[in-house]
Amino acid sequence: MSFIQLIRREMQGSLPRLAVMSGLSGFGNAAILTAINSGAEAASSGEVSLSSAGFFIIALILFVKTQHYTLITTTAEIEAIIHRLRVRLLDEVRRTELLPLEEIGRAEIIAAITKNTATLAQAGGMFAFAAQAVVLITFVALYVAYLSPLAFVLSVLIVGAAAGRFHAKSHELAMGTREAATWENRLFDRFMDVLDGFKEVRLNRTRSDDLFKDVLEVSRTAANIKIRTQGEALKRVVFSQGSAYVLLGAMVFVVPAFSSDTLGASIQKTTMALLYVVASCFGLVQSLPLFTAANAAADNIEQLETKLRTTVTGAPVSAVEPRKSFDTIEMRNVVFRYVDKSSEATFQVGPVDFTLRSGDLVFITGGNGSGKSTFLKLLAGLYKPESGEITLDGVQVTDNERDAYRALIAAIFSDYHLFHRLYGIPDPGPAEINRLLAQFRLLDKTSVTNGEFRTLDLSGGQRKRLALIVGLLEKRPILLLDEWTAEQDPEFRRKFYDELLPQLTQTGATVVVITHDERFLDEWHLPARRLRMDEGRFVEQR
Q1: How far apart are CA 498 and CA 389, in angstroms?
Q2: Which of 121-130, 217-226, 352-361 has the highest mean pLDDT?
């Protein structure tokens, strides 16, 4: 999709009216030139042309008014389009499924919402000037044809040859721009590796050096592609500028040699008219690389939207009526496979048979890479089974019911995210929040005001406690915990098993816990199921 196609599709204002006003602005600009030429001709004869002066004033007022309207309207429309694109992309992201989103990657999504929309905004600022430059050049061309048909024909030949040469590598430059964007997305991923894996990078010098070498290689490749692409674009700009000077030289040195009737005032007017539009031509040519980048940005956004639309399933989020209770969830012969993008290795969970009843407390243990976290995402409805089925109270969970199914579940995964605000909890009771903060020993660390935490600058274990508080405030019947105790100190880990879990079971909550705390489980005497997972299957149950 091109930048112009994007504007035509997304613009809600009157595009014909904007085009008319832009045309009038260009006409006013050309009329100013005509008035000045006419006034200069009268002045050369020692006279003052009042009609030319009046025409100049009218043309100036027309230009100023239409220019104001065109620029302000264009800016407002472009920013409105970018706003709608950002909102729509985020809406499609929040409605897509987890696995396709992981396959797309954060870099492409963030680039579309930030970098690509910023490119569109820059191109939008140039769009009005470019449109006016085209109109101005058109009227000046007509004016030149009126003054000298030969000069007009020669101008068309020179400009046509320059335009053909200019357009010859447009496709190649567009491909280079898209390739550079792809490598910059890869570079973003490497930066995120450095930031997200900072502890691991600092602990292992060899890993740090290898990652840094990879960053250098990716950055160097991206830079080389951009240098090559922008170098070709700048060559086209210089060529276009040279062509403009060739055109002026032809008017002065070539046209008089073939047509004597263009000598004198006529050739002066023609040259002045062409000089008048040279700046506009230079601006138009220099804006073309930006429009090429805008075309690539619009294409990237369109491709991302296409990917996201194909992954959006089920009813809209706002249409889901959350369930308050359930009796039984069953997983029958559920199999899930995925391919790791970095190693191209295939991982499989299943076939799995599992039943979860209201009020159950289930512990799941197993080694790293055994499939516990993937199973939890299947149970949460974040991953869709490749085969088999999940039923809720005897009814199969399909795409249309998956959001309603997920509304039963609150979860804290190992890679959880803690929000600054209590989103989705419209009226959290201050007394209940303070009680939970005190119970989790966080009352002196943070607080909640108007639904927002005072600070999240906490230790890893404290952040997980705060995440569990948020999960409890959601008041959903099922709570899934993935290695929640991993970062807790021994005292609070004991408190979790001896105090928090019994309280949850007494309130009728259904809790599934992934844990490595074998010692605590061996000492436990409360009713609970204990499952062990190995190579994606349950191998033991107690």
Answers
A1: 35
A2: 352-361
